[in-house]
Amino acid sequence: MSTDLKTLAEEANERLADASAQEVLAWARETFGDELVVTASMADGALPHLAAEAAPGVDVLFLDTGYHFAETIGTRDAVAATLPINLINATPKQTVEEQDAEYGKDLFAREPDKCCALRKVEPLNRVLSGYKAWVTGVRREEAPTRANTQVIEYDAKRDMVKLNPIAPWTQDDLDSYITDNGVLVNLLQYDGYPSIGCAPCTQRVAPGEDPRSGRWSGQGKTECGLHT
């Protein structure tokens, strides 16, 4: 454990718990410089947009699992083309075909935790090892598992500072930011997919349902392992 990073995160969270997302990101850029990376699922371009304003040229990490919707890949490409960011497209060690050959076809349907570990968690950890701080788009209202998310945390598992600058935002806050700033949105958001992951493990959600209920439906699974 890095005591310095842990103390830094705790002290910064006390100071910036009620700060705006822009202020949190500006502090992160000033503190970590090029050792800061932003993660983005490309459900929309809000977090990359925020980060690009606070830290032009910032590294933005996308986990290219090999199972994404075409709309998500299109959003990734459009965000990279229109914002001053450095897109890092992280891929698993195995292609889908190689994984199928070793573990059997459709591992996601039989062992979703294993599939997420191979195609999301391992690539994330591999790339994050080159940084001291990472930024996520986690919001408290998204799920009970995220209700206690701090704006700035110490990530003990990775010995990093983890920033969640939009943790306090409601869906209305996010929608307003997107509208006010002309932010790109994944087209699936308008087709019944409020939470977007890999195509085989994401279903449409009926109006009024938990936005994340379409993820791993019927699997008893609510998180991919990136934030737990």
UniProtKB/TrEMBL annotation:
Might you name a Gene Ontology BP term for this protein?
hydrogen sulfide biosynthetic process
Q: Where in the cell is it found?
A: Cytoplasm
Q: Name one GO molecular function term.
A: metal ion binding
Pathway recorded for this protein: Sulfur metabolism; hydrogen sulfide biosynthesis; sulfite from sulfate
Copy out the cofactor comment: Binds 1 [4Fe-4S] cluster per subunit.
User: Which InterPro entries does the annotation name?
Assistant: PAPS/APS_Rdtase, PAPS_reduct_dom, Rossmann-like_a/b/a_fold
> What positions does the entry give for [4Fe-4S] cluster binding?
C115, C116, C198, C201
Q: Which reaction does it catalyse?
A: [thioredoxin]-disulfide + sulfite + AMP + 2 H(+) = adenosine 5'-phosphosulfate + [thioredoxin]-dithiol
Q: EC?
A: 1.8.4.10
Entry keywords, A to Z: Cytoplasm, Iron, Iron-sulfur, Metal-binding, Oxidoreductase
Active site per the UniProt annotation: C224
- The Phosphoadenosine phosphosulphate reductase domain extends over 40-203
Say which enzyme class the record assigns. oxidoreductase
Return the annotated region ranges for Disordered.
207-228
Coiled coil stretches, renumbered:
none
CDD domains given for it? PAPS_reductase
What family does the database annotate? Belongs to the PAPS reductase family. CysH subfamily.
Q: What does this protein do?
A: Catalyzes the formation of sulfite from adenosine 5'-phosphosulfate (APS) using thioredoxin as an electron donor.
The name under which this protein is listed is: Adenosine 5'-phosphosulfate reductase
Species of origin reads Kribbella steppae
